[in-house]
Fold each of these.
Amino acid sequence: MSSVAAVAIERKRVDDRLNPILVKEVRQALRGRYFRILFALTLSAATLIGLTVVSSAAISGSLERAGQPFFLAIFGVLMAAVHGFVPLSAFLSTSAEWDENTYDLLVISNLKPRQIVNGKLTSALIQALLYYSTFGPFLVFAFLLNGVDLTAIAVMITCSIATCVALSLVGIALSSLATVKIARVILMALFGLGLVAAWGMAFGMSYALTEEPQLLADAAGQSFVAGYLTAMLVASAIAAAIAMARFAHDEENRSTPMRVMCTVVVLAATVWSAWLQSQFGGIETIMVCQATAACVCGLLWLFFLSEPEELGRRVTHHAPRSRVLALLATPFLPGGGRGVLLFSLHALLALLGTLGALAFGSTGPGDRWNALGFVAVIYGYLALYLLLP
């Protein structure tokens, strides 16, 4: 009995050291019907589809070519689970905070917004880990059937994990935005459609890499994979910043993390512009990168510009005491006027980044003015529709 008691005490100590949101979410998820039913259905579907593909190949005498269709079938079911069921579970777990009237308790608790978001994200990733672990033997069997490149499998799994993280954080952020139930239902329907589109895009990428793994050997394919992972990282960071802002107290600084992430997006567009310019040339790549960054930050700028000017008590308490640091930190503090400063800073960074990216390739004076004019027009339109109102 003493050993059993010692194990129970140690387990309790471990639970106390873990994120309480993580413990609660994992227990609810693994004990709930949603995960158990979908997990059983997903595994059954993968088994039946795999047996069908292998038996059809054996009957037709083309078993040596069954590796690719078997892998695509199994990986398609896996992506439906980790790109569909897991992010939707993260959305529903956050929506439950509103339905059960526990949102206010989370906000006023001693838990930091970062801990709340990390707990919900980690719970979703634990569910995803169970799916990946279960489907691992199927993927190994697909590799043993030949016809599937090992590097392509590693790239697809890496991109799948990054997509799962991004979609889960987007689900948490979207669910935290709506306080009215009908709004959450509408957002859930739109999010579901987005998950279906994400599954289709991921399946198309998997099909291309399975059929032509040599795409990963050239610079274009490698740049595409790196760009995709960068996009998922940026989407994850922005969604996490939005979710943490929603779980923060009204007197806390909700704006600075999102302002920092918005600045990182603008700088990332500059880095990608320079890289693509050095690899492929052409000002079109610079235009696309800068336009994408401006579109991504557009909604965030709208939020920044609509914030009240007065700083909260906690924000004032943590503001820099040095005048120089306070001056540098001004665009990153909450407030609509300071949002105008941040927008102006981003516009300047975009123009300077365009000039810097042009230096990495051979372009004529006309191309340079075209690229600068394009970026200036984009930010001019944004200033017209965002700053003036």
Amino acid sequence: METEGSSIHREVSRERLKNARRINGVRLWGVSAFFVLFLVLGGVLHLPEWSGNLLLFTLYWAATAGIYLASRRSERLVLASGMGVALFDAPIVFFLQWSTFPTSNPSGVAGFTVGVYVLLVILAALSLQHWYVIFTAVVVTAYEILLQHFADVSFGAMVSTAILIGLAGAVCSYPQYRLLRFVQRIDRHVRIHRAAEATRQEAERGASLASLARELSSTLDPATVAQRTVESIVRLLQARSAILFRVEPASEALVTIASIGISHRPLPIGAMLPAAAGA
């Protein structure tokens, strides 16, 4: 039987799986939108700053679409593909932007990429794993600083970029950390409560059995013993009703000797059920 604690843990795992699929879906639609932009500006209008990396973006879009389709078929793959934001998208964005330096303003390209990397950190927040958000923030910061270095951006601008992306990572990861800690506390309290409830019920059963033994030893009247027995059975099993029969040796019929809680078609004391009547 599944406990409430394990149910909470299972629900968090399901939500992480759903969000991993959402991440892949957002990545696909985002990359597709930029791919269309590259096709129009670079492939149709032949703008130099957009045409130099058209082949790389085509391969990027094809890989993103392949990851999305493959992750729809496998739970293991969809969870592993969530790391693609830091380990796949971040370096691809770096090379895409770096390849435009000869035909565009490098510092402007580096400035635009800061916004893209902040979006990747926000996208990683869907994972419901604060450590992954922090990891993504560290990775994209490293790529952005490297890009700004190649663009001859000032050291102060690099520090500001690191602070900006770091703040984005902190803002996205801290609420997740607090939420998951809260869920873990609830899960722990539920498990403790279930264990205490099981211990209490076991103690009540033991007390009921001891009470029944005392009651049975205090009388020799068969009717009283039978009635106290069904009362104890109801308490032990938390049932709503109980009937106690004895077997008639000659006919093997069942004879009612005690009952409790029977409101619908009650069997009177002494009522007889023929052998195999319930078969």
Amino acid sequence: KMKTLVIIPSRLSASRLPGKPLLKINGISMISHVYKKAQEADIGDVFVAAEDQEIVEDVKKNGGEAILTSNNHKTGTDRIHEALLKLDITDVELVMNLQGDEPLMNIDDIQNLNSQMIENKNDIGTLAAKINDKKIFENPNIVKVITEKSLDHSKFPRALNFMRKLDKEINKAYHHLGIYCYSVKTLKKFISLKQSQNEIKNRLEQLRALDNNITINVALAKSSPIGVDTKEDFMAIKKIMEYKA
């Protein structure tokens, strides 16, 4: 069976919400909540690739594993690649990149993405959810993906494009979730490529893959978790998670 390694890139200097990974929910930092989620998914070893020593210490204090990476990376993917090299784990074939700011990501969805990648041996896989609220189309903080075929729970179609804003509802447009699974070969190729104009203009690193003919396949997620971009997002997630507890 193909072996998967889960790496969660994390840094304190988020533009919109400084110190985001260490904000606490139920007394535990957001990054440690994500770490525990990844562990529960049980698809492989989990590491946080952090830009800051404080994050490393926090994750370790909460029983997780973390590794310090450079603070010169332009993207999370570069950070993940450095962590992969530093960890020097040779028998891994897939790397799962989980965002540190989506503590409500569904475990079934993580497992499903991993299974699709193992089964289909793709370059890159990601998740997207159905859009139920029209406001999402205009919200530039919520990334949309347009797929070749409609998504359902058994299909794994190609992504045709990613964008931050759509003027109108269109068919086969979904809410893109911050999770990627790469074959190690594709990850190495991806980070050797220069950032594309498209990527820089839209602030979406996945466009670098599409601009270089690297295929991204998309699985349907059961739920669309709120990602944390703003103070309001954080308060909303905190409320949900503390209520559940």
Amino acid sequence: DFLRMQKQQITLTRALVPLLKAQGVFVYSTCSLEPEENEQVLRRLLADWPGLRLEQEQWSLPFRDGFDGAYAARLARTTQ
């Protein structure tokens, strides 16, 4: 249920952002390759929190990497 999971992931990450110090970093990661759970969540967070900056994104692809698919994004808080 991608939309339900997306809502949960957005709720969780929205609770985290205010806890970050200025220049604080967190990694958003899933064991999914679905855009609804990854890029769409990330784009929404970046739109909602102008003080966040995407530093890096990475995908693990089963056919390329030889293990399950996954996604990770490193984000940093640029403001207090």
